């Protein structure tokens, strides 16, 4: 199954999706900077809230390293706005209702919960280098402490 997940060194799959304000965000428009592209299941749920708040808390540190944080879920732009306003988030959230971006990055997967199987977003993160190749991947992420781990990895890559 891991063969459909882009790996370090590969060109990052191109994408275009609306952010919480309805503006199209495309990978091609972000050339020349680091991108933290993280996939999460649903706005305003415990793990997703923890992750979004942690990335927001560290957003200035990511900015100093020329990195933009993009969270992606299948939620609507309207739901993203509510989520951002409720928790005063300062990160960009992309709406991917047809899970095209999640598909391209192998984050749309078969999941199991309480004996039931269904398709959904698997929490995962991709660090995309300024030349738009995958620099690092985190499949099957645990939300707590993840933003700190991503920042540490980015710092290592920037320093080399």
Describe it for me?
The chain has helices at 46-57, 59-64, 77-87, 100-104, 146-159; strands spanning 16-18, 24-26, 34-39, 67-73, 92-95, 108-113, 116-121, 124-128, 134-138. It has one domain (17-159): Glutaredoxin (3-Layer(aba) Sandwich). It is globular, with a radius of gyration of 15 Å. Helix content is 30%, strand content 28%. The protein has 160 residues and is of the alpha/beta class.
Which SSEs are present, and which pair or pack?
Blueprint: E1 16-18, E2 24-26, E3 34-39, H1 46-57, H2 59-64, E4 67-73, H3 77-87, E5 92-95, H4 100-104, E6 108-113, E7 116-121, E8 124-128, E9 134-138, H5 146-159
Parallel strand pairs: 3-4, 4-5
Antiparallel strand pairs: 1-2, 3-8, 6-7, 8-9
Q: What is the CATH architecture descriptor?
A: 3-Layer(aba) Sandwich
* Count of folded domains: 1
Report mean pLDDT, rounded to a whole number.
Answer: 93
Residue share in helix: 25-40%
- Would you list the SSEs in sequence order as H and E? EEEHHEHEHEEEEH
Largest sheet: 5 strands, mixed
The end-to-end distance, rounded to whole angstroms, is 31 Å
Beta strand %: 25-35%
The CATH class? Alpha Beta
What is the CATH topology classification name? Glutaredoxin
Widest sheet: strand order?
Answer: 5-4-3-8-9
How many helices? 5
Radius of gyration: 15 Å
- Gross morphology is globular
Spans of 5+ residues with little confidence (pLDDT < 50)? none
Which properties best describe this structure?
redox-active center; globular; two-stranded antiparallel ribbon; oxidoreductase; alpha/beta; EC 1.11.1.24; Glutaredoxin
């Amino acid at each position: 199954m891991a063969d459909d997940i882009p790996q370090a060194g590969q060109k990052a799959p191109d994408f275009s999706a609306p952010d919480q304000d309805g503006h199209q965000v495309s990978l091609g428009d972000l050339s020349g900077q680091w991108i933290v592209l993280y996939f999460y299941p649903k706005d305003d749920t415990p793990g997703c809230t923890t992750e979004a708040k942690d990335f927001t808390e560290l957003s200035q540190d990511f900015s100093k390293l020329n990195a933009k944080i993009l969270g992606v879920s299948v939620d609507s732009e309207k739901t993203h706005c509510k989520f951002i306003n409720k928790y005063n988030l300062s990160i960009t959230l992309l709406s991917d209702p047809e899970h095209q971006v999640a598909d391209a990055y192998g984050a749309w997967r078969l999941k199991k919960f309480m004996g039931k199987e269904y398709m959904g977003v698997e929490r995962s993160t991709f660090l995309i280098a300024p030349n738009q190749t995958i620099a690092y991947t985190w499949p099957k992420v645990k939300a707590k402490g993840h933003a700190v781990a991503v920042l540490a990895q980015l710092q290592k890559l920037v320093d080399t």
